[in-house]
Please model this.
Amino acid sequence: MRFVPDAVDGVELRILIAAAGRVLRGEVAARVRLLAADLDNAFAIGAGGELLWRGGAVGLMVAGESLLTPRAEALACDFLEGEGRERVRRRLQEFVRNETERRLEPLFVAQALPLGGIGRGLVFQLVNALGCLPVVGIGRQIAALDPRDRSALSRLGVRFGTESVYFESLLRADAMRFRALLWAVRHGRPVPALPATRRLAKPFEIDSALPASFYESVGLRVVGGIALRPDRLERVAAAARRLARHGPFPAGAELGAIAGLRPAALRRLLLALGYRAVIAGGEETFTPRPRRQRKTNQVGDRRERSADGHPFAKLGELKLA
Model:
């Protein structure tokens, strides 16, 4: 039987739709009140930055002013508008802030420490980098850091290595994956894939399609095209220095086991760390590159330039066997 609506049926249909709308609006308003009053454990963040409430998607993380301050947006809904939608957004924003502070707690605790100017500057850089910095570029700050400030940061879990300064507690896989999400949200990109949890603790080749800033934000160091955790980089660098004290050394099995790298990748890592490859008698060994002597003052600079220009200056460089 075919249904043919007449004028009466049309009026009734509009009344039903209006009544249904009122019911739905009332139901949505009740859910907004429930969401706004719910505890943080009723919310979750999905793998792509989706904001979930009791298992359902209600919002999304979007770029904010910095990596650490993503914004929350409520998903569009026909019956969620005006004050109700803003109320949902505010509650989601509160959850995102709380969750970020919970997952990356040491960064926020460090900002609250009563440090001197140099210490505050170092913490500012560490926080902006999400917890890991190469020593190159901040060496003078570290050398000038007040011993009390250094102790306070060390107690918080900041490790001062020869290659990196980093928060040790943020090297957990869950913290690293959350930082990957923050980077993706900030740059408006899908979250890049990271190795499985066990594999993440070991060095791996970087994806050339991703900028170095991604790996740095995650808390990894990129050296010679290899991404590795700063604590492992410190162990490799320490082992190489120990071997170098006895003269040129090969990139052998012992060093390879510490690095967790095959010979070709280990070779690239050593070269990037400043070692020079020397081949003699068919064997390749590595030796530290000589450090350049700093020019201490203008008088010394003039003497050095004068000596360089002297016709017999090059004789001093000759080593007679």
The chain has a mean pLDDT of 85.
